[in-house]
C-alpha cells in the first residue's frame, strides 16, 4: 500500500501528511515514501512552474508615465507611487527635484499626483518605456520636445483635491485617465519588453557593500531609503519622516535603487536659450554617454555602469564586468544626482560606502 499527500504551490512544498502505511521522507528535489513490507516505493519529482516574467511588469499593457510634483513645502504627500514599476527623480529649476512615475495601463491606481508640468529631458525616459505621458503644462523646451519627438501625451482632465489657489493639488483620477486615453485613440498595448531584465527568483547581491540607508540629496530636497529586513524592501522618508500615500496611508517603498551622477546647468548656459528670463533657470542635464553608479537591492550595493548612446535610446545598466544587471521583481527608483547634489550609502554592518563617484563621461 502506498500513501502520500503532497501539495506543491509556486515551487513551495508543504509539509507532507503521514498516514499509517509508512514514513514519509523528503530528500533534495524529490519526495520519497516508504510503503509497507512489500517494499513499494513511489518517487514524485517536484515540478517548477515556468517563469512568467516579473509581476511588476506583467502582460502586454502599455506604460503610462506621470509627471509628479515634488515641491517639499507644498506637494507632499504623493499618491499612487506604489503602483508604479519605475520612478525617476531628477532635478528641475530652483534646485528642486521632480518625479516621473511609470505605471502599467492596467495597474493605474485610483489617484495619482500631484501632477506637474513637463521638462524636456524627462521625455528621454518616456521614450525608453514606450509610454503615454501625463503632465499639466510644460516649459518652452518641453513643448518643443513634445512636438518634435511625437510623444503621445495627455493633460487637462484631472481633479483638484486640497487647498485652493495652488498648483500643487492636481490629481489624475483613474477612470478619467482611462476615458481620456481611449478618446484619444492611443494604443494601450506595449510594443516592447521592459527596459530592465529581471531575476526569476529574488536574488541577493554577491557583495560586501551593505546598504542599510541610502540618502539622495538634491539642493532643496532629500529622499531617504531605509532597508527593512523583514519585507526586504526600502521604506522611503521625505521631509525627515515616513512618506505615506495621501489617500491609502501606505508608506512608499522601493525594491531596487539605481543611483548615479550627471552634470547639469541652466539652458541659458548650456545652449544659449535666452527665451525665458534667467531667474527661472530651466535645466539641461547631460544624461547621454556613460557613467558609473550603484545598484542596490536586498540590503546590499554593487557598483554599476550605465550607458545611454542618445536621448531616444534605452539606458542600459551593467555590472563592472559589462554584464547587463538582472533586477529583483519590484519597484525600481532611479535617483539621478545633479551637480550640487550628493548621496551616501550607509551600513549597520561596517563603515559606510562612499558616495563619491566620477561624473558621466560624455
What name is given to the CATH topology of the largest domain? Answer: YerB-like fold
In whole angstroms, the N-to-C terminal distance is: 73 Å
Corresponding CATH superfamily of the largest domain: YerB-like
Question: What is the overall silhouette?
Answer: globular
Strand content range: 25-35%
| Second rung of CATH, namely the architecture of the largest domain | 3-Layer(bba) Sandwich
- Rg, Å, rounded: 24 Å
Mean pLDDT across every amino acid position: 86
Summarize the biggest pleated sheet: 11 strands, mixed
Structural class: mainly beta
Q: How many structurally independent domains?
A: 3
Name the poorly predicted regions.
1-36
- Helix count from the secondary structure assignment: 4
Proportion of residues in helical segments: under 10%
What does the model show?
With 362 residues, the protein is mainly beta. It folds into 3 domains: 8-45, no CATH class; 55-184, 3-Layer(bba) Sandwich (YerB-like fold), CATH 3.50.90.10; 197-346, YerB-like fold (3-Layer(bba) Sandwich). Helices cover 9% and strands 35% of the residues. The protein contains 4 helices and 29 strands. The chain has helices at residues 123-128, 140-149, 174-184, 267-271; strands at residues 8-9, 12-13, 24-27, 30-34, 41-45, 63-68, 86-91, 97-104, 111-112, 132-134, 153-154, 159-160, 170-173, 197-198, 209-210, 213-218, 221-228, 233-238, 241-242, 253-254, 256-261, 264-266, 283-285, 289-297, 300-308, 316-319, 326-327, 332-337, 342-346. Strands 6, 7, 8, 10, 11, 15, 21, 24, 25, 26 and 28 form an 11-stranded mixed sheet that branches. Strands 16, 17, 18, 19, 20 and 29 form a 6-stranded antiparallel sheet that branches. The protein has a 3-stranded antiparallel sheet with strand order 3-4-5, with no helix packed on it. A hairpin with a 2-residue loop joins strand 3 (24-27) and strand 4 (30-34). The longest helix is centred in the middle third of the chain and has 11 residues, at 174-184. The termini are far apart. 36% of the residues are buried.
Amino acid at each position: 500500500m502506498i500513501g502520500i499527500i503532497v501539495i506543491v504551490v509556486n515551487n513551495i512544498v508543504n509539509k507532507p501528511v503521514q498516514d499509517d502505511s509508512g514514513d514519509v521522507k523528503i530528500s533534495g528535489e524529490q519526495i520519497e515514501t516508504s510503503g509497507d513490507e512489500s517494499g513499494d516505493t513511489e518517487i514524485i519529482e517536484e515540478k517548477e512552474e515556468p517563469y512568467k516574467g516579473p509581476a511588476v511588469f506583467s502582460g502586454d499593457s502599455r506604460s503610462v508615465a506621470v509627471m509628479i510634483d515634488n515641491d517639499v513645502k507644498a506637494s507632499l504627500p504623493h499618491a499612487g507611487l506604489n503602483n508604479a514599476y519605475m520612478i525617476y527623480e531628477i532635478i528641475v529649476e530652483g534646485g528642486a527635484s521632480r518625479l516621473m512615475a511609470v505605471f502599467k495601463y492596467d495597474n493605474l491606481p485610483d489617484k495619482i499626483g500631484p501632477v506637474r508640468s513637463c521638462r524636456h529631458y524627462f521625455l528621454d525616459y518616456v521614450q525608453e518605456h514606450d509610454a503615454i505621458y501625463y503632465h499639466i503644462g510644460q516649459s518652452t523646451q518641453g513643448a518643443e520636445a513634445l512636438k518634435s519627438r511625437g510623444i503621445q501625451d495627455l493633460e487637462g482632465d484631472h481633479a483638484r483635491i486640497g487647498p485652493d489657489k495652488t498648483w500643487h493639488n492636481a490629481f489624475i483620477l483613474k477612470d478619467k485617465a482611462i476615458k481620456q486615453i481611449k478618446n484619444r485613440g492611443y494604443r494601450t498595448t506595449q510594443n516592447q519588453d521592459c527596459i530592465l531584465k529581471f531575476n526569476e527568483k529574488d536574488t541577493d547581491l554577491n557583495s560586501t557593500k551593505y546598504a542599510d540607508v541610502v540618502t539622495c540629496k538634491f539642493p532643496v530636497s532629500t529622499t531617504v531609503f531605509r532597508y527593512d529586513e523583514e519585507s526586504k524592501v526600502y521604506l522611503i522618508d521625505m521631509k525627515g519622516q515616513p512618506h505615506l500615500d495621501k489617500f491609502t496611508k501606505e508608506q512608499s517603498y522601493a525594491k531596487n535603487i539605481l543611483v548615479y551622477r550627471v552634470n547639469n546647468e541652466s539652458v541659458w548656459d548650456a545652449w544659449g536659450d535666452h527665451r525665458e528670463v534667467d531667474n527661472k533657470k530651466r535645466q539641461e542635464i547631460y544624461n547621454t554617454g556613460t557613467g558609473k553608479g550603484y545598484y542596490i537591492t536586498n540590503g546590499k550595493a554593487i557598483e554599476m555602469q550605465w550607458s545611454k548612446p542618445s536621448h531616444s535610446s534605452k539606458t542600459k545598466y551593467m555590472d563592472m564586468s559589462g554584464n547587463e544587471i538582472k533586477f529583483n521583481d519590484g519597484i525600481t527608483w532611479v535617483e539621478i544626482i545633479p551637480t550640487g547634489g550628493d548621496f551616501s550609502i550607509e551600513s549597520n554592518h561596517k563603515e559606510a560606502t562612499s558616495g563619491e563617484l566620477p561624473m558621466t563621461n560624455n
